[in-house]
Specification:
Blueprint: H1 4-15, H2 22-31, E1 33-37, E2 42-44, E3 52-58, E4 61-67, E5 70-77, E6 82-83, H3 86-91, E7 98-101, E8 105-111, H4 112-121, H5 123-149, H6 152-162, H7 164-169, H8 172-179, H9 183-192
Antiparallel strand pairs: 1-8, 2-7, 3-6, 3-8, 4-5, 4-7
Helix pairs in contact: 2-4, 8-9
Length: about 190
Amino acid sequence: MLLETIAQPLLTYIRRYVELSKQDVEAISDAYQIRTYKKGDYFIKQGDRIDEIAFVVEGVMRVYRESKGKEITLFLRDENSFVTSITGYSGYHLSPYSVQALEDATLLVMSSEQRQALFEQSVAYQRFSMMVLERTVQDMEVRIDSQIADNAARRYLKLLQDHPSLIQRVPQYHLASYLGVTPESLSRLRKYL
């Protein structure tokens, strides 16, 4: 069982969506375990069979895919966000993505088996999970739409507005991959904005 002080960021995040009873807090604390990762370590490697999801307490995680010798960054996740490969986690398929720490990171990790047990113990956590799933799908739709409809400058400005700390914390070549441009194009873009 996690100490409530260690679980506090997760509990605070969940309470933004649902009320938690003392029993809910205990069940959630029992379901998650703390793990630390050094910069460059992997939570998930592309092709792994996974059954875990993590809440980022500290650090930045990059979700990416290798294709034709190139790394394509799909998502950047920092504090107070969840990270996994949904395809791998939900369907017990091999993960098409890698999840790597871009900084030293502290994660609260839960297996799918622990999630199932938590669902049986906490209706509040079930509701919370549905809300997070809906938000995740919305975020994915916004990201896809932005890649289709927005130019690189608009995508950069949106990232700067929504997640300003990532601009300082994530290496430029990963930011460029996330924005769908070359590092050189991102450098020129930053100079003119």
